[in-house]
Write a structure and sequence with these properties.
CATH architecture of the largest domain: Roll
Number of domains: 2
CATH class of the largest domain: Mainly Beta
Number of helices: 3
Largest sheet: 6 strands, antiparallel, barrel
Shape: elongated
Radius of gyration: 21 Å
Helix content: 10-25%
Structural class: mainly beta
Strand order of the largest sheet: 1-4-5-8-7-6
Number of strands: 16
Order of helices and strands: HHEEEEEEEEEEEEEEEEH
Strand content: 35-45%
């Protein structure tokens, strides 16, 4: 049995790896294979997911979390608020989290490159009023279990592609660019209309791109990973996007999905 104090060192979990979770969204899945509500969690209609209260999909469809993954009924989304004495402190507005008390869980979270997980034992500190507050004591190392698969949505966003191959440094307004539009977009890349000025680009070419998101433009380095001659498109992946950029893209994708499900224009 791993004690809360010193549990990180005894289980072989590095403090730095756990510290990287603070401020992230994490998915808590029961490791015993039982539903979240099996140990006393609230039954009935599921509330909004996550500390921001993002709503579920109308009509019972899939729900995409702010972490950019599809939520199933066996998952609770929580915000990792702090790391204290090797124990992770989390908060969530999903009442079902109360059913995780004294149960083994898998704490799953995403980085720009991969999905990671760490096994832990959950203890409920506050079950009411909301948010539910949990303490997660790790019982094993942080491990990668799959490459990151981003949720992709069809959406038309104005995009400018730099003519020069430089992707380092700050982008200036005088930088020559070619204007195009996206066919689809995710936090990991996009597919663009192949317009005049971009015909010479092919797999491996790296360029700076400016995404015309509604709040303000987002500048990212990108690499061409493919081109479609029939549909006249370029497929790009973003190169090591900053965490803040990933969160902006995830929120944008999430908002587009909600509007599309409600029959509104993206």
């Amino acid at each position: 049995m791993v004690e809360e104090r010193g549990g990180v060192e005894e289980a072989g979990v590095e403090e730095a790896a756990l510290d990287a979770l603070v401020g992230r969204w994490a998915m808590l899945r029961p490791a015993d294979g039982q539903p979240v509500e099996a140990a006393g969690g609230a039954r009935g209609a599921r509330p909004g997911v996550g500390p921001t209260g993002s709503a579920g999909s109308p009509g019972g469809g899939q729900v995409v979390s702010l972490a950019g993954v599809v939520l199933a009924d066996d998952a609770v989304e929580a915000a990792v608020m702090a790391l204290e004495g090797g124990v992770l402190r989390c908060e969530t507005r999903d009442r079902r989290a109360a059913g995780l008390d004294e149960r083994p869980v898998l704490v799953e979270f995403g980085t720009p490159a991969a999905m990671l997980q760490v096994p832990a034992t959950a203890r409920v500190l506050v079950s009411w009023p909301l948010p539910v507050v949990l303490a997660l004591t790790p019982s094993g190392p942080v491990e990668q279990y799959q490459r990151r698969v981003w949720v992709r949505v069809p959406v038309a966003v104005p995009v400018e592609v730099a003519v020069a191959a430089t992707v380092e440094g700050e982008a200036g307004s005088e930088e020559p660019r070619v204007a195009t539009v996206s066919r689809d977009l995710s936090a990991g890349g996009c597919r663009l209309e192949l317009v005049p000025g971009l015909e010479r680009l092919g797999p491996g070419d790296e360029r700076r791109v400016v995404l015309g998101l509604p709040d303000q433009p987002l500048v990212l380095a990108a690499r061409v990973v493919g081109r479609g001659e029939r549909d006249r498109t370029l497929r790009l992946e973003f190169l090591a996007p900053p965490e803040a950029a990933v969160k902006r893209l995830l929120r944008f994708v999430f908002d587009v999905q909600l509007r599309q499900r409600r029959g509104q224009d993206p």
